[in-house]
Amino acid sequence: MTAPLRIVVVGGGGVVDGPLPLRLQSKGYQVVTLAKPDEVMGFIYSDPPDVVLMDLTDATEEVLAIITSLKDDFFFSTIPVIGMIPEADAELFDWERCPLDDYVSIPMHYRELFTRIVLSLRRLRRVFDNNPLTKLPGNTSIQRAIEQVVGRPMAVCYVDINHFKQYNDVYGFAHGDEVIRMIARIISNSVKEAGGGFAGHIGGDDFVFIVPQEQAEAVSERVIANFTAIVSELFDEEVKCNGYYLAHDRKGHEEKVPLLGVAIAIVPTDYPKIAHYAKVAEAAAELKKLAKKSHKSCFVVDRRKY
Which CATH superfamily groups domain 139-301? Predict the structure, then answer.
């Protein structure tokens, strides 16, 4: 069963207390209303919605800054932001300062609003390749991001979760999905805390982040530390004390599986032989094999000068 789409409605009392939330709910959407602009970013960071409806009757600098921040963020830029603009103001609206995905006029024509919500989501699916589980950019965006940093003093860091398949088999796909969402958020936040960069989801338990070379090891350490702190909550005390849980291999034999960890391969992109995307992926595959030999979380840096 597909979860209902979640919409955040941002606006004054006339918007959040009016018929709009009820009309959206009547179409099967989950609706959260926020009357104060300073609540918006905190809410979206903690629980990203599928669509944001923003009342622009009073387009203050704070409101415009929120929209710009969302659209400048690699993680949140794919969330459609639809402005609600008084009909008389639409023609003179400063679209350069307010990077909306679409708008509807006030007074509201609800049939038009519902159509624009659907079209905004479909349009973004065509343009972006974001992973539906984590909302992070997917393979096309990842390849483009790597190609843009080849030859520059950056580092492409490939992240893989150790023993994830066994965890999925023993604890179930629902718990596995929670782990995937958790590591996605940890990677995204760690990149942001380092001053920015790129984070993407290759698929399954494989991720990529790109940061300046001098930040790569610190960000990797932060990812490992945060993952280690949170992952312990996934296991009961007996498993944590033992340091393993029991599973069965492909032949049905019982095996002791270590707790989840992360392996990170760090590939600098300014070496002469790292001339294109394929070389980065090739180097990362070799490094990940080394990192995954350890039962504990670790990162390996490519220090070869080729």
Answer: Reverse transcriptase/Diguanylate cyclase domain (3.30.70.270)
